[in-house]
Write a structure and sequence with these properties.
By secondary structure, this protein is mainly α. It is built from 3 helices and no strands. The chain folds into 2 domains: about 45 residues; about 60 residues. The model has no long low-confidence stretch (mean pLDDT about 90).
Length: about 110
């Protein structure tokens, strides 16, 4: 038995079959990459939302400073009421000058009398 040599047509047919198989595999890979791209797009959208809604240290610092200012203003108003009341009690001779001075020296806003 003698082996028959492949013809040019046989070789071209084999190359064509191989090329078709490779192309089919690349089509499958392309489809998988399309799926990965869609997933990355969704992840990117979620990260954008997160970045836009994240609270930063600077934001918190600003808000805490605003709160501190608001609380200080409120406390100063209350302190003014206490001063007025202490002055009234002193004028009516309910507390003496030393007691008045002791009260006004108290925190949060001590006064020298």
């Amino acid at each position: 038995m003698s082996k028959k040599e492949p013809t040019t047509s046989d070789i071209l047919g084999a190359i064509n079959d191989f090329a078709n198989q490779v192309e089919e595999r690349f089509d499958g890979v392309d489809k998988r990459f399309d799926g990965v791209d869609k997933r990355f797009d969704k992840v990117e959208e979620r990260l954008d939302i997160l970045e836009n809604n994240i609270v930063t240290k600077d934001y918190l610092d600003d808000k805490l400073m605003d709160l501190r200012v608001d609380l200080t203003i409120s406390m100063r108003k209350e302190d003014k009421k206490v001063e007025t009341l202490v002055e009234l009690l002193h004028k009516k001779k309910i507390i003496n000058k030393a007691e008045k001075a002791d009260i006004l020296k108290m925190e949060p806003f001590p006064k020298g009398v």
